[in-house]
Design a protein that fits this description.
Rossmann fold; alpha+beta; 39% strand; 13 strands; globular; 5-stranded antiparallel beta sheet; 4 helices
Length: 189
């Protein structure tokens, strides 16, 4: 049905307003998306813009499947320090202050086992983690692990079988890192 609606929209070449709670429909049909919460507009933009540059933690968690991983941290010497002690270098353009409580966000495709990622990360952090669950989906496998005391998800492209309890070296793409203020939820980049 999505394809038929898209074809109709392209054929009639007029503005169409389509209301949906299905993010796949929104991402595939829209030229521009308006994301609302409780009757208020959270963000307006192209599908790519709201996916790549969410303005707050709500949009970051709403768009994307699986959703963006969001971990609480505190700023120390230009790094996000997670509850398990992992230090994640912050982007140079992050507007943070020493000691500030933040939320570090990254999409599952930005946290992948070495050699199985979508992006060639110029700036990355290597993290060894034990896989708790592997969810094979054919061309990719969703991997569950613990980071910062929370369960997170990563994606393994060109997958191989992974057993629960297996230790893998994950690459966290720092160029695709999101930083949000913990109190307001707003982006700090």
């Amino acid at each position: 049905m999505r394809v038929e609606i898209k074809k109709l929209h392209q054929r009639v070449k007029t503005t169409v307003i389509y209301v949906t709670h299905d993010q796949v429909e929104a991402m595939t049909l829209a030229d521009r998306i308006v994301i609302m919460r409780d009757g208020h507009v959270e963000q307006v933009g192209t599908p790519s813009d709201v996916f790549e540059h969410p303005v707050n933690t709500f949009v970051a968690g709403f768009i994307g499947s699986p959703p963006m991983n969001q971990l609480d941290a505190r700023v120390s010497s230009g790094k996000a320090v997670l509850s398990d002690g992992l230090e994640v270098p912050l982007p140079a353009d992050a507007r943070v202050s020493e000691g500030q409580e933040i939320v570090v966000g990254f999409r599952p495709e930005s946290f992948a086992p070495r050699g199985h990622s979508l992006h060639g990360a110029d700036q990355s952090l290597m993290v060894n983690r034990m896989v708790t669950i592997a969810e094979p989906l054919g061309t990719e496998t969703i991997l569950f692990a613990s980071v910062g005391g929370q369960e997170i998800q990563g994606k393994m492209l060109n997958p191989r079988p992974v057993a629960p309890g297996e230790q893998l070296e994950f690459t966290l793409d720092l160029q695709r890192l999101h930083v949000f203020d913990k109190a307001t939820g707003k982006t700090l980049r």
